[in-house]
Design a protein that fits this description.
alpha/beta, Purple Acid Phosphatase, chain A, domain 2, six-stranded mixed sheet, 13 helices, binds zinc ion
């Protein structure tokens, strides 16, 4: 299914408001104002726009002041999110400038349209900004340049998720350096890691609507939770308070308590779990179980990361009547991994409709934009991310994964995987 999404919905309602007035004029026998000013074309255009909107609305023949005021209170808020910003050293080196400085603005050039259109802009920062003085490193214990964070801010993201299995790669010191680093950007909401005693619940207010955003990781790449990191990294899985041993099959009770509290504080609760089985396009039984528990507790949206590959989107219905939209995994935003499946990713796109009755998700304008991460080789460097619908066979053939990973990127397979995993949730910019 292909749907056109990239529009400024607030403008749509302004157009609709104007259309009510203009339609009235069009319907009357006297429309001198529009004819004289040459706006009769506008009149035709807004009629067609209005007809789409009017089909969903109550009767609009009454253009009383009260009616138009009611209609103009409706707005829409767009959320976009990308997956794991996984900074392998080839990507770190791509940002090195001739003068020795670092700049990562290129990371986000492929998604500027989404960033321009959405009000809530989220990214999963997989790797930690542990401090440039430590030196940069890739797998298995990452440390990424703070200049990546600067580029995230410059690109316009306003929510950065940090609860990942790499959050403690540089121990508590690296994690706290990252927390301190972000304090220079108070306009950006940081979730998943925090200072001592700080709440894991963060609220982002957009046009008067409060969105609570929660972020948890299954663990820090260890079997036991380090005592030093407790209280600084928000945990998805339960662990023994004494030994620190993590139980990967049990949701941490704090998650459900936080969701319940967030439900009291906010209009919409968004939970972002870092979870799942790597390289698997189907959600595990534990992901499904945790998602159901989160839905029962009050999550409205669940957006997962970590498996390095995409996983499906689905509506979850809990027995208590709660309903949540769940994206199990968006895949890597960028990486230089060597599996072709890791090059397919998604931009999550959610359209919230705000009326006097509350906030709802407009299902026909909600889903994913499939994307492809493209890197070159010899040496390995990140090129950009591309919309799958615009990605060509020639590009796939030139992908650096062939020489770096020893395997070709098959354009047809990318299309098949996207269809199989996302099905009806695929959106199009066409
Ligand atoms: Zn991860």
């Amino acid at each position: 299914m292909s749907k056109k999404i990239l529009k400024q919905n607030i403008k749509v309602y302004l157009i609709w408001f104007l259309a009510v007035i203009i339609l009235t004029a069009c319907g009357s026998t006297e429309i001198p104002v529009y004819q004289e000013t040459g706006k009769n074309v506008v009149c035709e255009e807004t009629q067609s726009t209005a007809s789409v909107q009017l089909s969903e609305e109550p009767t609009v023949s009454d253009t009383s002041e009260l009616n138009t005021e009611e209609e103009t209170t409706e707005t829409e808020i767009q959320l976009m999110m990308v997956g794991d910003n996984l900074l392998h050293m080839g990507i770190v080196r791509t940002g090195k400038q001739s003068d020795g400085s670092y700049n990562y603005d290129f990371l986000f050039e492929g998604i500027t349209d989404f960033l321009a259109e959405a009000e809530i802009k989220m990214i999963n920062q997989e790797t930690i900004f542990g401090g440039n003085a430590l030196g940069f490193s890739g797998y298995p214990a990452f440390n990424s340049p703070t200049e990546v964070g600067d580029a995230i801010v410059k690109a316009g993201f306003n929510v950065v998720l940090h609860a990942s299995n790499h959050a403690a790669d540089k121990n508590l010191g690296g994690l706290l350096h990252c927390v301190e680093y972000w304090k220079q950007y108070p306009e950006v909401t940081i979730v998943g890691i925090h200072g001592e005693g700080e709440s894991p619940i963060r609220i982002l207010t957009i046009e008067g609507i409060d969105f609570a955003i929660l972020n948890y990781t299954y663990g820090p790449n260890l079997e036991t939770m380090p005592a030093s990191v407790k209280g600084h990294l928000d945990m998805l899985c339960d662990y023994d308070e004494v030994t620190g041993k993590i139980n990967f099959t049990k949701l941490h009770p704090q998650v459900l308590e936080d969701i319940a509290e967030a439900k009291e504080l906010a209009d919409v609760v968004i939970v972002c779990p870092h979870w799942g089985t790597e390289y698997t396009t189907k959600p595990s039984a534990y992901q499904q179980q945790f998602a159901l528990q989160m839905t029962e507790a009050g999550a409205d949206v669940i957006i997962g990361t970590h498996p390095h590959v995409v996983q499906p989107v689905e509506w979850i219905e809990a027995q208590n009547g709660n309903r949540a939209l769940c994206y199990y995994s968006l895949g890597n935003y960028v990486s230089t991994q060597k599996k072709p499946l890791c090059m397919l990713e998604a931009v999550a796109w959610i359209n919230f409709k705000v009326t006097e009755e509350g906030v709802t998700i407009t299902e026909e304008d909600t889903g994913v934009f499939p994307m492809v991460c493209h890197y070159t080789a010899g040496p390995v460097r990140l090129d950009s991310v591309y919309l799958l619908e615009e990605y060509t066979e020639e590009q796939a053939q030139s992908h650096g994964i062939l020489s770096y990973g020893g395997v070709a990127l098959d354009w047809g397979e990318l299309q098949d995987w996207s269809r199989e995993v996302f099905g009806e949730f695929v959106l199009s910019v066409e």
